[in-house]
Design goal:
Layout (H helix, E strand, L loop, with lengths): L9 E5 L3 E7 L2 E9 L3 H14 L5 E8 L5 E5 L9 H10 L5 E8 L6 H18 L3 E5 L1 E8 L4 H11 L2 E7 L3 E8 L3 H9 L5 E3 L5
Antiparallel strand pairs: 1-7, 2-3, 3-6, 4-5, 4-6, 8-10, 8-11, 9-10
Helix pairs in contact: 2-3, 4-5
Amino acid sequence: MYVCNMEADTYTTITGISEGIFTEKRSKFIALAIPVRTVEDIKGHLDELQKKYYDARHICYAYMLGHERKNFRANDNGEPSGTAGKPILGQINSHGLTDILVVVVRYFGGIKLGTGGLIVAYKAAAAEAIGAAEFSERTVDEEITVWFEYPFMNDVMRIIKEEGPQVVKQAYETDCVMTLRIRRSAMPRLRTRLQKVDTARIAEQSPD
C-alpha cells in the first residue's frame, strides 16, 4: 500500500479517465476512474454520468481529495449500506490515490448477488478502472509573495534562477511584486533568501 509521504511533500493521482468492466450473474458493473480537484468537479462528472447512464439501476461512487487525503466520501446509491461506496473507497486507499473520483455504474442482471457478492463486484470493478489508469506523482506546492524596490530586482532574479520557483504573477509599479510557487520542502530556503534582500517584504499568500 502506498502512503502519502508528507515529508517528501508528494502525492499520487491519475492523469486521465480510465474504465473497467466487471460482470457477475448477468449484472454488469461499469467503472470509471476520473481525476478531479474539487467537489464542484465531482458534482459535474456525477451529473453527466447520471444523464449518460439514466437507465442504470445504481450509480455508486467514492472520492478522495487533497494531498492530506482527509476529504473523502463513499456513496452506495441505494445498494445495501457498505456494499458499494466503501469497497470502491477501499480501492482508492489501497493504491494511495487522491484527487480521484471512482464511479461504478450497475446494470442489474435479474439475479441478486447478496451483500458479499456486491462487495466483491464493486471492489473488482473499481480495481479494474484504477488498474487501467496512468498514475502520476506530484509535489505539494506553496506560494509566497514578495514586494521589493526596483534597484534590488537583480538580487531577487538571482534567487529565482538558483532556487527555481515558478513565477505565478509579477508586476512592476512603484514597488515590484512577485508571487512565486515552489514545492513545500523548498519553501523555507526560498523564504529565508528572499528575506535577506534589502527592502523585501514577504507574504505567505498571494494578494487578492
